[in-house]
Amino acid sequence: MLKIRKILVSQPEPSEVKSPYFDLAKKYNLKIEFKPFIQVEGIPIKDFRQQKINILDFTAVIFTSKTGIDHFFRICNELRIVVPDTMKYFCITENVAFYLQKYIVYRKRKIFHGKAKFQDLIDIIVKHREDNFFVPLSDPHNAEIPDLLDKNNITYTIGILYKTISSHFANLKDFDYDIIVFYSPSGIKSLKENFPDFVQGEIKIAAFGPTTACAVEHEGLRLDINAPNPKAPSMTMALDNFLKEYNRNHQK
Length: 252
Prior knowledge:
Layout: E1 6-9, H1 20-28, E2 31-34, E3 38-42, H2 45-49, E4 60-63, H3 66-78, E5 88-91, H4 94-99, E6 110-113, H5 118-125, E7 133-139, H6 144-151, E8 156-166, E9 179-182, H7 185-194, E10 204-208, H8 210-218, E11 225-227, H9 235-249
Parallel strand pairs: 1-2, 1-9, 4-5, 4-7, 5-6, 7-8, 9-10, 10-11
Antiparallel strand pairs: 3-8
Helix pairs in contact: 1-9, 7-8
């Protein structure tokens, strides 16, 4: 294989016209397809009640994703809970923090955010260790989160508000991609469930985040592109760097 022609990204197609993925496709004359490998389902309110969690007992909420924000406020709405203005919000990135504007008056709330990794956010959370934290997560979720909270003696409760399940690709017969991009360990699980006889061969695998990278290697697959890294904080930048180097090495 001397040329990368087709990339599969295991996420929904970007709604923004100026997505860096579209710029990448144009720059390298690529075909990029978007197919979510996982689906998110909200936990029914009766299942949440069984967790015996009272949201008003908490003084702060930790958000690791926009999905977590959506389902937190969904649950509050279904329970007819008015979240007090004094609630503090700790978000894994600035982008996730800005998403709160969908539900609250942003400038009037106490909102904190990290840079990209949960460790960055922990450094901020520790400065507010007097708070009682609620952590909305999915089933399954990243074990690093409770591990770091425990390690730093933070008072917290995890609430399962949604779950991730594998998508099914009955209509995907020809698996003729040169690169597959994964954003979560659940995506790797979905690949194995949908294609139990999958052989990587010359297919390049890209993973975003350390837990996704570990899942790739745990399944005995070869990790070719890893983001974020010192030269590329985003997946599209990592792909750009890889394609630039790959094309240089495979020029006739």
